[in-house]
């Protein structure tokens, strides 16, 4: 991380991202939050925490796209990023996200996730299930006691 070439690459990427219009996916907000956190940009981090939390749905989750119904993919990513940014385990958004994930896990251990591509948004997709299950687990692991 302290490698000058890495820092130059990160700075160039950050300049590009800062000029871009806000994304439509939860992933975009997660990326901005993780970047601000890793670069110790506290004001930007706090803004992105607020933005990400404002996109949380009433059921406690987030969708792949911010306008999509909640799923394990969007929720797991958001939960992971919020915890990495230092949001407390007892914070309402964290608890609600945990509950969403716990309540939507299938008996086989996976989470059902519909496709992210326009032609596949109406059905559960195997690849999306793998991604969603991975992110759900990563998010929930961040909520375990240390």
Q: How does this model look, in words?
A:
With 146 residues, this protein is mostly helical. It is built from six helices and no strands. The protein has helices at residues 4-19, 26-38, 42-54, 72-84, 92-104, 126-141. The longest helix is centred in the first third of the chain and has 16 residues, at 4-19. 35% of the residues are buried. The model has no long low-confidence stretch (mean pLDDT 93).
Short description:
By secondary structure, this protein is mainly α. It is built from 6 helices and no strands. Helix 2 (26-38) runs antiparallel to helix 3 and helix 4 packs parallel to helix 6.
List keywords for this structure.
single chain, 146 residues, mainly alpha, globular
Overall geometry: globular
Characterize the main sheet: none
Number of helices: 6
Q: Terminal Cα separation, in Å?
A: 24 Å
What do the pLDDT scores average to? 93
Helix content: 55-70%
Query: Which range does the strand content fall in?
Result: under 5%
The poorly predicted ranges are none
Order of helices and strands: HHHHHH
Using the CA coordinates, give the radius of gyration: 16 Å
**Number of beta-strand segments:** 0
What structural category arises from helix and sheet content?
Answer: mainly alpha
């Amino acid at each position: 991380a302290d490698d000058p070439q890495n820092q130059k690459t990160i700075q160039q990427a950050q300049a590009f991202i800062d000029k871009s219009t806000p994304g439509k996916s939860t992933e975009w907000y997660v990326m901005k939050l993780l970047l601000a956190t890793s670069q110790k940009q506290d004001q930007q981090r706090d803004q992105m925490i607020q933005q990400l939390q404002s996109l949380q749905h009433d059921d406690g989750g987030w969708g792949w796209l911010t306008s999509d119904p909640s799923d394990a993919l969007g929720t797991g990513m958001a939960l992971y990023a919020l915890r990495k940014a230092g949001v407390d385990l007892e914070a309402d958004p964290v608890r609600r996200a945990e509950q969403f994930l716990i309540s939507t896990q299938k008996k086989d251990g996976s989470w059902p996730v519909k496709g992210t591509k326009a032609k596949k948004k109406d059905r559960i997709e195997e690849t999306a299930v793998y991604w969603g299950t991975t992110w759900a687990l990563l998010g929930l692991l961040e909520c375990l006691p240390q």
